[in-house]
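Let's practice the habit of predicting before peeking. Look at the sequence and jot down your guess about where helices and strands might fall. Then scroll down.
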Amino acid sequence: MDDFLLYFKMGLYHVLDFLAIDHILFLIVLAVVFSFKQWKKVLWLVTLFTIGHSTSLALAAFGILEIKLELIEFLIPLTIFITGVINVFTAKKTSKGKENLNLIFALFFGLIHGLGFSNYFKMMIGKEDDKILPLAEFALGIEAAQIIIVLSILSIGYLMQGLFKVNRRDWIIVLSSIVIGFSIQMMIDRVFW
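Done guessing? Here is the structure:
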C-alpha cells in the first residue's frame, strides 16, 4: 500500500505542481472548450491525455524510446501554444459543439508531455523488475490530478458564463490567449538551438 501511495502521489503532484505549470496550462486550453453538459467528452479528454502520457512514459521506462530532454522541454510549451491558437481560431465553431480536435490533441500531445517526466520516473523506479505496477499507480495519480484541474476549469467557466454572463466564445478566446502568452514565454526560455 505504501508503494501505491508513493507512486499515486508522484502522479498527483506531478500535474498539480504550480512551479511546473506546463500540465496545468495544457489542461486549461484542452478543457476550456467544454462544459459540464459534455461530461462524457470531458471524461474522454482526461483519459486520452493519461493514455498518451502513460504510453510515452512506459516506452521511456522500458528503454524503447529516448528523446533529448531539451527537445521535449521545448515541445511541451509548443503543444500548449498550438492548442491555444486552434482554440482562438475555432472559438466560434467550438461554442457550437466542435471540440473533438482537443480530444485528439489530448492523446497525441499527451505523448510529448509524458516524455517530459520520463527521466525522473526512470530514476524513481530504478532497476525494479516490475515497472508496470508503479506506472499504473502513477497514471492513477495523474488521472486524479487532471480531474481536479478540469473540474476547476469547468466550474470557473460555468461561473463566468452563468453568473457574469460572459459569452462562451469570448471565454474560450480570453483564457486561451492568456495561456498562449505563458506558452510563448516558456518556448523562449527553452529554446535549445
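How did you do? DSSP finds nine helices and no strands in the chain.
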